Amino acid sequence: MTKRIFRSICLVALTVFLASVVLFMGVLYEYFSNVEQAQLKMQTTLAAQGVTNEGIDYFHDLKVKNYRISWIDTEGNVIFDSASDTAEMENHLEREEVREALSSGYGESRRYSATLMERSFYSAQKLDDGTILRLSISQNSILTLLLGMTQPICIIFVIALILSIVLAIQVSKKIVKPLNEIDLDNPLSNEGYDELSPFLRRIDSQQKQLRGQKAELLQKENELNTIIGSMNEGMILLNQKGKIISINPAARKLLDADTDCIGSDMLSLCRNLELQEILTKALQGERGENIIRLYGESYQIDADPITSENIVKGAALFFFNVTEKEKAEQIRREFTANVSHELKTPLHSISGYAELLKNDMVKENDKIPFAGKIYDEAGRMIRLVEDIISLSHLDEDADDMQRENIDLYTLAEKAVQSLEPQADTVCVALELSGVPAPLNGIPQLLYSVIYNLCDNAIKYNHENGKVMVNIQNENGMVVLSVEDTGIGIAPEHQERIFERFYRVDKSHSKAVGGTGLGLSIVKHAAKIHNAKVDVKSHVGKGTTVIVTFPK
């Protein structure tokens, strides 16, 4: 902008200078022309007096330098001419100044010679005898005058040019300085040209709009970053060359990548062939998905192409951890298979015994034992179904069950009393100790926790063994411990004993009549109460299960 202002000022200054020179020369030229015309008239009057007094003798001693004198008779013939031979001169009767002098006594005219580039002034006066005395003087044209003044004009031009440049620099800086000092953040606070006020008001209005839009965009960006950052699923955005342009914390953690991975090639972070195949399809415009193993866990990979005007601009990768889902699906399949097996076994027994009885193929003395076996297998089925129903309720988080303020010690007393006949049958001593422990929970679930733990401790104990139940208040927690002197659990089985239908010793479990669901019920009931379950066991020495409830 400064250069444009500078050039404009210089151009205007030079234009004004040239126009001024031309105008000045024109005015000066016209002024001196008028002066010369007046002098020529005066000289004509003096010369006319001389000719009147002396006649042609007046011209003999006359020394003329600047003027040309002509004496013309009444017929227009030149009698005398100070510059040319009269015999060769044409008749002057038709000359403007001669005609005017003949008619009015005095005449003058101006004529321009394109050949000589001169302008001539003529002055003619009629004498007493009727003849005409004419004086003329030549004046150079204004162009010739300008050419003759080239040197001084050039000097003046150079001086004017220098002054114009200096002035243009100073003026342009002065004009531009307020513009450069405008505070765009606070346009209305600027002191400048009044002409800038509408412009500054418009800037202020636009600034307010931009600040509002910026704040809105920033809020949306923060919301988006918060959502993306809090996602448990990994998300990666890639450009059309497979370079990472965005990655959320979950994806960085999964791929063990740092914040400098932006701009890196995706395949440099993970060289899984299946992932490469999915990504290649996505960058070609084809959506892909697959479940792959990464770092020991299962992930569902969804790759969606990002298109604009039917052109693939990149791809979005989503990582969904489906390890637990697969485990749950595996447990479901195993549970279904186990339920089928557990139900089929007693049903086959019942069906077999009943068929024998129906066909009267059983001796009279064996009918009662057969009926007893049918009864036992039916009871086993009932217990299995009851446990399955209990687990079904627990899977639904027991929403239909009401919490109450109860004493866990009192609840343990009831469970111990109900199990004492069973313990006496297998010669196992069942003992309860501890202190009152108030707790807010679901009574039937808490009872099932104590009952199942004690039931397992009795079933998997030695003859003349012990089961010790203890209730304590420790550090704001209620601690339930069930300790036995039974067969114990090997370390490799301790992590799986809470799985449904999992049995450490299947032959022994069948002998004692367990369903394989008791500890699963314990685990789910504890989870609903936000309790922690710990197992300590030594093979051949016994097992201790500790359940810690928050108050």
From TrEMBL:
Domain of life: Bacteria
Coiled coil: none
Principal place of residence: membrane
Cellular component terms (Gene Ontology): plasma membrane
Keywords (A to Z) from UniProt: Kinase, Membrane, Phosphoprotein, Transferase, Transmembrane, Transmembrane helix, Two-component regulatory system
Catalysed transformations (reactions): ATP + protein L-histidine = ADP + protein N-phospho-L-histidine
Biological process according to GO: cellular response to phosphate starvation
Domain PAS: residue ranges: 220-255
Primary enzyme class: transferase
GO molecular function terms listed in the Swiss-Prot or TrEMBL record: phosphoprotein phosphatase activity; phosphorelay sensor kinase activity
Location within or outside the cell: Membrane
Claim: Transmembrane helix is one of the keywords in the record: yes
Domain Histidine kinase stretches: 338-551
Record-annotated membrane-spanning stretches: 6-32, 142-169
Gene3D superfamilies per UniProt: 1.10.287.130, Histidine kinase-like ATPase, C-terminal domain, PAS domain
The EC number(s) this enzyme carries: 2.7.13.3
Name of protein: histidine kinase
